[in-house]
Amino acid sequence: MDLKAVLFDLDGTLVNTAPDMVGALNRLLRAHDMPLADIDEASKQVSNGGRALVELGFGSQLDESNAKQLVDEFLQTYEQHVCDDSHLYDHLLEVLVYCEQNGLKWGVITNKPLELAKGVLAGLGLLDRCAILLGGDSLPVKKPDPVPMLHACMILNMAPSQCFYIGDHERDVAAANAAGMDSAAALWGYIPENESPDNWGAKYMVREPSGLINLIKDLAQ
Hints:
Elements: E1 5-8, E2 15-16, H1 18-31, H2 39-43, H3 50-58, H4 67-80, E3 87-88, H5 92-101, E4 105-109, H6 114-123, E5 132-134, H7 147-156, E6 163-167, H8 170-179, E7 182-186, E8 204-206, H9 212-220
Parallel strand pairs: 1-4, 1-6, 4-5, 6-7, 7-8
Antiparallel strand pairs: 2-3
């Protein structure tokens, strides 16, 4: 493979954002005198975004009359604490450094709103090192549509076949595959127990972040 770029999903793949996202949910629940969410259970919904977390936390108390307001409140709360406790997964900094030292671009394509994604990467000191960052609102469509992947290729001036994408959700694999990129499932991510990553159609299955650098080295040869 003529590898030129390594592209990541953000939540649950490159960065463990669950502490701050679930923390924002629990701040919101506390403000509304609701029982707090279990962090392990709620973490499984992080890749599905703020609406999914609010639905989990408020359950039957959520309806169309209050859903938008509560989601907006969640986003405002989260924005204020977007990178308090979020952190790169172990060994992922090594992967980024390897890419930078070996002429590989790296970037992020996420369904998270762009400004929140910028906040996370800036808080980790990575925003200026990222060759491409696309959020869920950067384009008219988002993953699983392949358009964000193809747009990233255009910006990077690369063919999809020169890019490798890794994510922890079926939509990530679907978007990469449809765009003509090699794809990998990040099995350390926010994957619910009823999900079967084996059925996503990823070319590679990466069980631990420590295995990613060896895979990238192999692809770059």
